[in-house]
UniProtKB/TrEMBL annotation:
Matches recorded under SUPFAM superfamilies: alpha/beta-Hydrolases (SSF53474), DPP6 N-terminal domain-like (SSF82171)
Protein name: Peptidase S9
Domain of life: Bacteria
Keywords: Hydrolase, Protease, Serine protease
The keyword Protein biosynthesis is assigned to this record: no
InterPro entries: 6-blade_b-propeller_TolB-like (IPR011042), AB_hydrolase_fold (IPR029058), Peptidase_S9_cat (IPR001375), Peptidase_S9A (IPR002470), WD40 (IPR011659)
Length: 592
């Protein structure tokens, strides 16, 4: 641990708040001061994601200097004296955890040294102790007043979720993607007891029970577990997230409904009280997330976004919802329409259609999200809105493997079932054409969606007129060889084992079918990407150049798996629009 020790967890606020300049920006990772009067959050105003502190109800704000690297998340300690900041050096997947006072003083790193990565940070309520995970192998507690560092548990694919107030028990999560389980561990003996399958769980304030988002069934539910007694607190559809007040009296719960919209409700947790969910309305955006309570339980913070409306941070206090830092939806933003149709095998597929005004057919693109355990939702999409403005329809698809539609759908593309996901892309294109929505069609996506783009272009070469691959995998063998070790270990359940499933993974790798590609291809990648390493792009580009195939390569220095700097995103948007206008609408000339 760097810097002096024996620091006190008391709030020190900045003196130099200034008015926020008018600038459209995204704001996320809300975290409230203990009394709910101030909010810390991450914003990309100014060009790069940084931490800001803002009084609730004021237009004044203070930027907290954490150095030049982009910040991905911030958490305010329950005593108020510290902000824990998750920082991504070079924009890469590797993360460091730094502590800083809310006034910007006493900045020092506490985790993520050298080649280590640290994430899943959580302040233990009422204690100056930060819980985090390093390398998905070490569960760590850091006492920020003394600097003491305690390793609670070690093991493969492990993550620390919470520690009870007495320090006797820990909640740990084990396992690869799509197959994670939560266990209760006796810190002294190491004995472990299964809790449920899932991703999230916390102790009650007294430590007498556990609240867990269980994925044991087809759809997630919120459970309260007391000894061997299990109580369902929230169910019905897809329970997506929850947060508990520090006094243990109220839960805020968000549901994923209607193909990707959000509903939020408050649920009383007193054993003899009212358990009926009390909706939080009206929500300021179609998609809500990152629920967080102030330590005194008086204020609920969250993010909200919608079509043409960037992520904003909001609060709900005494039933009243108000913005802390948020932009309204752009005038004339197109609100998408949810489509539903059968796949080749009868499985129901859905997606959001952003369509230009007037009858079709339109030039169109099928957009494929990353993950694949993610979901395309009716949120902010500058690319989609810009394409529609140019007369190009966008179908943001949720093919098999996507979240939000139950456990069976998420698992429907695992390992050898991946061929079904590739066929889903063909089904989407066929549906758009057969219903008169689309004429010429392109396909594009990022991360896993980039892989699926390459797969669709090489499995169905006559179906698409253009492609855009954004940091997609082209060869599972080189992906496993060069990605971060913790990413590789967690991916086996989803993609297959690099040795045991080598023949299958080779057949599923688009690089071995690249000679079938016919559509012009734009390849986009961040130079520092260590999730999907840049070799996945260079091998495709080299293969296309050797064939003199129409292509363009956009490589972004100083960026990782995501484009975090606004200048890079602006360049990406400009070049992608030009590429698609050229090859879908016949405008301009191909630049190779």
């Amino acid at each position: 641990m760097e810097g002096q020790l024996h620091r006190v967890d008391v709030t020190v606020l900045p003196a130099g708040f200034s008015r926020i300049e008018s600038e459209i920006a995204g704001n996320w990772s809300p975290s409230l001061s203990p009394d709910g009067r101030h909010m810390a959050y991450v914003s990309d105003r100014g060009g790069s994601p940084a931490v800001w502190v803002q009084p609730v109800g004021s237009e004044l704000a203070f930027r907290v200097d954490t150095g030049p690297e982009p910040v991905s998340a911030v958490r305010w300690s329950s005593g108020g004296g510290w902000l824990a900041c998750q920082i991504a050096p070079g924009g890469a997947p590797r993360q460091e955890i730094w502590l800083v006072r809310p006034d910007g003083s006493d900045l020092h790193r506490v985790a993520g040294f050298g080649a280590d990565t640290a994430d899943n940070m959580r302040w233990l309520p009422g204690r100056p102790v930060l819980a985090l995970t390093e390398n998905l192998t070490s569960a760590v507690l850091i006492d920020v007043t003394t600097g003491d560092r305690t390793v609670v548990a070690e093991g493969p694919l492990l993550s620390l979720l919470d520690v009870d107030p007495a320090g006797r028990s820990a909640l740990l999560r084990y396992g690869p993607r799509g197959a994670r389980s939560i266990v209760l561990r006796d810190v002294a003996t190491g004995a472990e007891k299964p809790v449920t399958r899932g991703e999230r769980a916390v102790f009650s304030p007294g430590g007498g029970c556990v609240y867990a988002l269980s994925q044991d069934g087809e759809f997630p539910v919120l459970l309260r577990i007391t000894g061997d007694a299990v109580e369902v607190l929230a169910s019905g559809g897809e329970v997506e997230d929850f947060t508990i007040t520090a006094d243990g009296r109220t839960a805020a719960v968000v549901w994923n409904v209607r193909g990707g919209e959000s509903e939020v409700a408050l649920i009383g947790l007193d054993h003899d009280g009212d358990r009926a969910p009390h909706p939080v309305t009206p929500l300021p955006g179609l998609v809500v997330g990152e629920l967080t309570w102030s330590f005194d339980g008086s204020v609920l913070g969250f993010t909200a976004e919608g079509p043409g409306q960037p992520h904003g941070v909001w609060v709900c206090e005494s039933g009243q919802i108000r913005a802390v830092s948020a932009e309204p939806a752009a005038a004339g933003a197109v609100r998408p329409r949810l489509l539903s149709f059968p796949a080749h095998d009868g499985l129901t597929l859905t997606g959001w259609l952003f369509a230009p005004a007037g009858p079709g057919p339109h030039p169109a693109v099928v957009w494929l999200h990353g993950g694949p355990e993610a979901q395309e939702r009716p949120g902010h999409g500058p690319l989609f809105q810009s394409l529609v403005d140019r007369g190009i329809a966008v179908f943001a698809a949720n093919v098999r493997g996507s979240s939000g539609f139950g456990r069976s759908f998420v698992d429907a593309d695992n390992v050898a079932l991946r061929y079904g996901a590739i066929e889903d892309v063909r089904t989407c294109a066929d549906h758009l054409r057969s219903t008169g929505i689309a004429g010429r069609i392109g396909v594009m996506g990022r991360s896993y969606g980039g892989y699926l783009t390459l797969a669709a272009l090489t499995w169905h070469p006559d179906l698409f007129d253009v492609g855009v691959d954004i940091c997609g995998m082209s060869d599972f063998a080189t992906f496993y060889q060069h990605t971060e070790p913790w990413i590789a270990a967690a991916a086996v359940s989803k993609y297959g084992h690099p040795d045991h499933d080598a023949d299958l993974l080779r057949d599923l790798s688009p690089i071995h079918r690249i000679d079938r590609l016919r559509a012009p291809l734009l390849v986009v990648h961040g130079e520092n990407d260590s999730n999907v390493p840049v070799i996945e792009a260079t091998r495709v580009v080299e293969a296309l150049a050797a064939r003199d195939h129409p292509h363009r390569y956009l490589l972004f220095p100083g960026e990782g798996h995501e484009l975090l700097h606004r200048t890079a995103r602006a360049t990406f948007l400009r070049e992608t629009l030009a590429w698609l206008e050229t090859h879908l609408c016949g405008l301009g000339h191909t630049r190779e």
